[in-house]
Amino acid sequence: MLIAAGFLAFSGYLDATVVIIVSALASYVGHGTFFLIALYKREAFFALIRRFVKVNLLKLESLMARYGIAAIFISQWLYGFRLLSAAVLGLSRMGTTKYFVFQFISCIIWATICTGSGYFFGASLKNILGDVKRYEPYVAAGVLAAGFLVWFIRDVRKKKN
Known about the structure:
Elements: H1 2-10, H2 16-40, H3 42-52, H4 57-67, H5 69-75, H6 82-91, H7 96-129, H8 136-160
Helix pairs in contact: 1-7, 1-8, 2-3, 2-6, 2-7, 4-5, 4-6
């Protein structure tokens, strides 16, 4: 959806800077919340996760320990594991200052790259098609539909497992 927002920013419907700031802050707050819940309510959170998530938390925790700070940046790109990764970092008892500083940087980089990708996509379409304005509703609908389709397929596959 952030790529679609980047495309809409290119088209003039949204401000790219605002898209980056809002998405980075929303991501930062969401990850920070999961990190703090896992850090301070460790046992209750661990019990809850075991009931609902079919993920090998030991494997994920091993990944976080192995890569340290890089795990913050890597987990930002793992679809379906972003919030869980933040929680695992909380479970690993990574220092809060260290986590929040690097998570903030990671969220800004992530939001900038995703928004920039959509913006670049819009610029590329303009170079190929010329007057993009008449195609914008179709392209925006196509990008949103593709995002929904990817989410839906992954959700269905997850439920089958």
